[in-house]
Amino acid sequence: MVSIKDVAAEAGVSVATVSRVLNSHPSVSPDARARVLAAVETLGYRPNAVARSLRTDQTRTLGLVISDVLNPYFTELARSVEEAARALGYSVIIGNADERPDLQDHHVRTLLDRRIDGLLVSPTDGGSPLMLEAARAGTPMVFVDRWIAGVDVPVVRADGREAVRDLVRHLHGLGHRRLAIIAGPAATTTGSERVEAFREALREHGLPLPEELIGQGDFQAASGRRVTEAFLALPEPPDVVFAADNLMALGALDAIRARGLRVPQDIGLAAFDDIPWFVHTDPPITAIAQPTGELGRAAVRALVDRIEGRPPESVTLPARLVVRRSCGEQSPENSPA
Amino acid sequence: MVSIKDVAAEAGVSVATVSRVLNSHPSVSPDARARVLAAVETLGYRPNAVARSLRTDQTRTLGLVISDVLNPYFTELARSVEEAARALGYSVIIGNADERPDLQDHHVRTLLDRRIDGLLVSPTDGGSPLMLEAARAGTPMVFVDRWIAGVDVPVVRADGREAVRDLVRHLHGLGHRRLAIIAGPAATTTGSERVEAFREALREHGLPLPEELIGQGDFQAASGRRVTEAFLALPEPPDVVFAADNLMALGALDAIRARGLRVPQDIGLAAFDDIPWFVHTDPPITAIAQPTGELGRAAVRALVDRIEGRPPESVTLPARLVVRRSCGEQSPENSPA
DNA sequence: ATCCTCCGTGTAATCGATTCCACGAGAGGT
DNA sequence: ACCTCTCGTGGAATCGATTACACGGAGGAT
């Protein structure tokens, strides 16, 4: 591999000068600059990012640890994060935790070992010692989507409270009264918050949320299936099932189908997180859409602010309800006048 | 940040000894080893991967450049690649090319600058000079899914020829005669191969593949929509549309829906690449499934073989047809006796 | 007792960059 | 004509690891 020394030799200058040209330092003569550039060209020289990082103590790399790449929501988030980071001259290394705390720790550790400049995390659990320690030690860090309470780290997320309220109003308007939820792990903020928002919205309509209508899922399709089967086996099954993420909604659809039931005639279904496929499922699924792209961009902005010494800002964006047909059609008597 | 020097000081030994302990070099006394380990523990020392890479000239990192992360097929591929790499002690940096040659080049360049140990590529186009140059220069490289002809690089991919033949037989058995295809970019191997396989399979049944039934797509949903609209506007529209990837199938479904037509009654739909969502679309979509996980594992195996000096192997795995309902139901008279 | 090995350890070179500091040349002021 | 200042440049230290080499001491062989 050709190094800066080779370039220096070829151009007849010192390595210092080559470095100066490459970093567009002002005090280099036009002549030297030209010779260096020519040498770079003929040798096909590319600076070694590893060496540069060692010296400058910055990698211009961001780490992104997400809970599950196979979840389209996170895929899209990852994509927008990469895009935003690239625009600011940063690369992104993605670590997929697969909803497993041990894997999450593995990635955080590797990322830290690689001396990434900052970390974007969507924690799978309440927070491993490793991550808390890193945050305390001053690693620039931003939580995205999910967060951990009691840590002084900016959070970029969507607030679904209002959208959940809209959803419940929609369901109530459709005549549904017995509403169930497939919750995410209580250790995740999104897991507990969505249940809370749901419960609160129900209360506003004077509806209860009994224990048997709260199913404990883990944001994976299989758990959605399992919980839904339990709902359906109830003496009095729910009118509608609200899944706290899109994968569990998929599992719920499976379970409903397996029972030979139809959506929405026999039971309604709604999901948190909207994805392109929901338009094409049978039936199209009513969902709460997060501004994923904006979330990714805001997270990168906050992290880079933090890295470059500017005060980072926590950001909360509203989610919104997208009504489709999976909870029943608007009939004349309950449509808005 | 605590460095190896701090550990050496704390343990009362030289940095060489610390390094030896950390790399489990045999000649270290039990006493010294214990003291070093203790020091590592109390200081919370973690070796700087950047420095180590500079010295050893290996990063234990693989680069993966894929055409489109949002495509579930590639997401799954990326996931299996990461998994397999992790098992072998490698990290993976993913570069998303978004089907854009310039972005692909950007990622290849950054990855090379970071001195990744090897590169896994699914080229968006016929091959940029940059990539060919890297291959020639000896960068360990393996093509996955798509490849570039005339380059001495192992290829790990699925062969869909047989599955396409099965598909056409299935369609023919259902009475469909006018079959159309939404092709991928001709510059990609998967783009041209799938059309070829389709054409050949049609020939076996004495069916033609006229120009007007070959639509040019780019593996993105929008192009599937556009091409399908054109098909539907034909004086004699096709009986079935076969999309060369799942995203274009999604677009096709959109277009068909927008025309107010029903699948499969008015027109059939099939896709290359099977994904979980196809089970839940309306109707469930008949597709050709690739052994994605196995593909990812084989690709990593080949690349790591190449990196570690063993002869790498090209691998071709069979794809298989998964029949669902999007091309029509099996009716009594054409069901297998 | 002497010599040779081998083992554990430390010193220092090295990887490829960046950057501080010193130095010489030329310009400009007096 | 001399001093000063600026500018372009090179030498060398530095980042944090790994590793070749040297060295001293212990143990075994003769």
TrEMBL record, chains A, B:
Lineage per the UniProt record: Bacteria, Bacillati, Actinomycetota, Actinomycetes, Kitasatosporales
SMART domains: HTH_LACI
Domain of life of the organism encoding this protein: Bacteria
SUPFAM superfamilies (UniProt xref): lambda repressor-like DNA-binding domains, Periplasmic binding protein-like I
Pfam families: LacI, Peripla_BP_3
The organism of origin for this protein: Streptomyces jeddahensis
GO MF assignments: DNA-binding transcription factor activity; transcription cis-regulatory region binding
Gene expressing this chain: ccpA_13
Entry protein name: Catabolite control protein A
Keywords in alphabetical order: DNA-binding, Repressor, Transcription, Transcription regulation
HTH lacI-type domain boundaries: 2-56
